[in-house]
Amino acid sequence: MKLIKTEDAVGHVLCHDITQIIKGVTKDAVFRKGHIVTEEDIPVLLSVGKENLYVWEKEEGMLHENDAAEILRQICQGEHMHPSDVKEGKIELIADIDGVLKIEREKLRKVNSLGEIMIASRHGDFPVKKGDKLAGTRVIPLVISEEKMQQAKDVTAGGAIFNILPYKKKKAGIVTTGSEVYYHRIKDTFTPVIEEKLAEYDIEIGGHEICNDDPQMIENAIRSLLADGCDMIVCTGGMSVDPDDRTPYAIRQVTGEIVSYGAPVLPGAMFLLAYYREEGKEVIPVLGLPGCVMYSKRTIFDLVLPRLTVGEILTAEDLNTLGEGGLCLNCPECTFPNCGFGKGGTR
């Protein structure tokens, strides 16, 4: 930076804040670091006692913080989001739609490891709403080397760090199992809970079958709902390890494979995930929900449902990484998703 007369500063970039103090009225920066001085600014600067100013002296191979911030925005901003205006090397990203935030975590870590630039975001793999703040970026020094920003671009080559996956219109089939419900010995209190959860993501109910504990009956019910065009199947009941709990067997008969029977999440340890695959058609998730989904405020179902609704194909590894953060603390006042539940190990 260099020191010049204030009258000669038009077009130059300030290297420091200019503070105005009026007793009993204000004490604040009238101009911020990084401000480009205009002709109209000169009388104001002189009025606060600034006869001389430290301004940025452009150097070969160096970028002003705002120019570098624009590069940082380019490597961060993916689909369905927009940036705020740049200010003092800072830009924020704002969601344009409801959906699930996806983060290239390794890219994020590597960029933050470069130094002099930073990116802070909300947790990925969780729902966001239109207007939500997704991430904040900052170039820390007033000037930064072009080489450093090129390193950031190299790290993120091939795609942005952040993207939002939009929800897809889904039609779910519900299979309620259990002889006690089928023979009307008890009231079905599970299905209303599932309907409420599905409604959070505007998922249409495409059919509802009630079965006893006969695995063939359960299998037939699943196949019937698939034939009716359901692109998600949710099975409730019969998910424990008791000998007469046959829902997992029926699901396996339909899908041929189970991605995971069990997940490191409480509530939700007995959760089952499978996929029905038919050549030329979209993969259909088939879920087995344990009883805890019926009586616990938030469970494994709340962690996986949004991701399935945007069309993600979850793997066993995706579920395994939920262990850290997978313990719901059953707080007296539930603040999910603004809590630690489900926000665990990186992937």
Verbal overview:
The chain is α+β, with helices and mostly antiparallel strands and 347 residues long. The protein has three domains: 2-55, Molybdopterin biosynthesis moea protein, domain 2; 62-165, Aldehyde Oxidoreductase, domain 3 (Alpha-Beta Complex); 171-320, Molybdenum Cofactor Biosythetic Enzyme, Chain A (3-Layer(aba) Sandwich). It is built from eleven helices and 19 strands. The strands form six sheets. Strands 15-14-16-19-18-17 form a six-stranded mixed sheet, with helices on both faces. A four-stranded antiparallel sheet has the order 6-7-11-9.
Overview features:
347 residues, Molybdopterin biosynthesis moea protein, domain 2, Aldehyde Oxidoreductase, domain 3, 3 domains, six-stranded mixed sheet, four-stranded antiparallel sheet, 11 helices, 19 strands, Molybdopterin molybdenumtransferase, transferase, molybdenum cofactor biosynthesis, MoaB/Mog_dom, MoeA-like
Give a brief description.
Catalyzes the insertion of molybdate into adenylated molybdopterin with the concomitant release of AMP. It is an enzyme of class 2 (transferase). Helices cover 27% and strands 27% of the residues.
